[in-house]
Amino acid sequence: MSGIEQIGSYAPGEIEYLIEHDNTVLLEVESVGWDFDAGMEPGGWGLGRLQNSYHKRTKPPSGSWSMDRKMLSRADKGQLFLDLLKGSAYILTEYVAPAASSHTPAETLVSILHVRTRTAGVDWVEGVDYTVAWSTGVITFVSTVPAGGLEVKYLTTTAALTAQNLVTNGGFEDAITNTWEAVGTGTPSRDTDNEYVGDYGLKVLAPAQNDGVKHVPDIVVVPGRVYHCRAWVKGTTTETFKAQWTDAGGTVDMTGSMTLSGADWNEFNWTFTPDEETILDIRIVNTTASPATFYVDEVYLGLNAPTVNPLDGQQHVFTFNILGRRTMDSVQVINLKKCAIYANSGKSGAPYKESVSGQFLDFEGESS
């Protein structure tokens, strides 16, 4: 089974082709060609004369694809897709608090994938709802950020965070039972008056030094890899905090001890390298001699700048879907699933064009 840019009886321009990863459309593709082997072979040996032949699956479905696209012409010089495929770029998600007028991404901004309201899920449009100073990376909002805040998903080449958050309920939007517990004599509770984004933050009463809160579900990690922990913390005065991780060998401090700057939200970042496969808890504690109540929101834990190596049994190449859908009503016509690249070439000068080819593991949609 095979297809070309226009499928079946669709006229030119009726189908748009999109690259999708982690439920996010990354970019539009100019044209797609594909071939698909469903892994089916004729059956019926030893069953006598059959009026109608049938097929049986003898191997996994697989296929190959190739495409062209016009590269982006912003800060990435069109390299967004290639950098992702090569593992030299990463997709990050950050949140913007309600009423904010601007946002500066924590890492180097290469390209914005989307700016979206968290409550209604409406995508904001650059030049209409926000502007970007690409020289500084600052995103300025034309209108006030609504209640619930914004989700900003963007591409960075900084050796920093990956997309997957290993922490459960890090935004405290769900009940904290079985996910967050007290450290020492601390008392954690969900709070609707002190949240960084969303509807809830975590309030932590800390009567004594080193009181705090811990994430208790086990987290499976890769020993020897560097992990990055990030959290937004708010206090009432100048106080110091540290993050810790616990495995079967005990509790260890992460690298980095942060001090609150005033009574506002501060972003804290720590790193650590586990030596066992299971993390029993992640802790955030107040190390001030006479601590006060503090607040936590948007806790993140993920691999720090992973090395892409599909042969080590742990890391995988960047995979994505290629969607073909009708432009008039967004009805899906094809979906090449679990795509991975094996060859690419690019034109470095304007208009920045590349050709990419690869394989996919499954197919959905209309045949042609």
Describe this structure in words.
With 368 residues, this protein is mainly β. The chain has three domains: 2-46 and 56-71 and 318-365; 88-156, no CATH class; 180-303, Galactose-binding domain-like (Jelly Rolls, Sandwich), CATH 2.60.120. Helix content is 2%, strand content 48%. It is built from one helix and 30 strands. It has one helix at residues 80-86, and strands at residues 2-3, 15-21, 24-29, 31-37, 40-42, 55-57, 62-70, 90-96, 102-103, 111-117, 123-124, 130-133, 138-141, 150-156, 180-183, 187-191, 201-205, 211-215, 219-220, 227-234, 240-247, 250-259, 265-272, 278-279, 281-286, 294-303, 320-326, 332-347, 353-360, 362-365. Strands 1, 2, 3, 4, 7, 27, 28, 29 and 30 form a nine-stranded antiparallel β-sheet that branches. Strands 15-18-25-21-22 form a five-stranded antiparallel β-sheet, with no helix packed on it. A five-stranded antiparallel β-sheet has the order 16-17-26-20-23, with no helix packed on it. Strand 10 (111-117) and strand 11 form a beta hairpin. The longest helix has 7 residues, at 80-86.
